[in-house]
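Case study B.
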Amino acid sequence: MPVAELNPQSEIGNRKSEEVVVSVRGLTKVFKDFWNRPKARAVDNVDFDVRRGEVFGLLGPNGSGKSTTVKLLLGLLNPTRGQIEVFGHSPRHVQTKSRIGYLPEESYLYRYLNSRETLNFFGNLFHLGKEERDSRIEQLLEMVGLSQVYMRSVGEFSKGMQRRIGLAQALINDPDLVILDEPTSGLDPIGCREVKDLILALARRGKTVILSSHLLSDVEDVCDRVVIYYGGKIQAMGALKELLSTPDAIRITTPALSRETMERVLEIIRQDVAADKVRIDTPTQNLESYFLDVVQKARRAAAETSGATSGARVAAYLRGGAEERPPAEKILERLTSPQAAQPKPAAPVATVPKVDDKKLEALTKAAESTPSAGKPKPAAEEKPVDLSKADEKLSSLLGKLK
Ligand SMILES: Nc1ncnc2c1ncn2[C@@H]1O[C@H](COP(=O)(O)OP(=O)(O)OP(=O)(O)O)[C@@H](O)[C@H]1O
Ligand SMILES: [Mg+2]
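Model:
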């Protein structure tokens, strides 16, 4: 799978649809004991809608009701109270089920089948013709990075490899709604990145994705909207962008500045904002991108692994026609988005309460008027920090796509 294909934030607007795929009203599930006494109120009076093309996250701590909600959506459990509609029908409707792909929290695959046989088995359940089945199996194995180990029994697979084959199984029917319970659990960081990119690629094709997770960074990277559960109840719900925005502060990231320039800039800011409200630090690379770089180097040095390899491109039948832009362009788009790009380690970051536009203009001028800033600089130096970081990542990622 390509490591980074999309700019999630700019995608959301394009793929948003008003068509409601899942509608949940007053959903309640109380588990009872042998004597019919309430044992656990797993889901408690929950309402939400999921629209076509959305990536919708169910978040919450352990035991908060995420998996129970997923099982209710799939018709695997009966609600104690409330209504669920999936594609306008009950989740138990047979036609509805054929439009859903499901990755369970725990692997329920047959231990003694190898990955090809496993996918063949599920392809048969969906009555796929041999040619179509074989073609999809090929693409899926490639996509999840299991082509090289397809002869080994699934029972021998490591946890992450089982997750990968589970994911391939969930997509064999080219589902319109994909429900993933903890999709990245047990996956190495490369696998996590690949699963996240796959989720975004699916959503861009108009597929709806519901995922449950307690790994917040994964959710943050892919979800349009989330609900946060605690004790079976929804504690917060909304678009991630809105839930996470801090409109009363701004962040300025620049290449390392001279002490002199810094003083000038701070002087202007201090005219508006108390000194103790301004924070200056040096951003660090995040662990995910550092890890990916290290592994990429090891791979280039041709180190051997008996585990899963990095996945290939998203299976063509899952990509559809809409995704035909060159991958490099998409990668660049994503890496240069303010959310995804990683700033240079050496660059200082200043966080200040929101300053008005005129002040910002003055700050720019102040930087320009310093002796060092006045000199013409080589093009590379003039690039915004995020972009140059993006270039570095881009070339390392492009290597991966080969
Ligand atoms: N079959 C069951 N019988 C009895 N209680 C159950 C059953 N399944 C779940 N529960 C209870 O319902 C509550 C919610 O469980 P659920 O599995 O939905 O949580 P979760 O949010 O998915 O947690 P995790 O993050 O650990 O996967 C828990 O208290 C759990 O013990
Ligand atoms: Mg769970």
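The mean pLDDT is 78. The remaining cases will be described in the next quarterly update.
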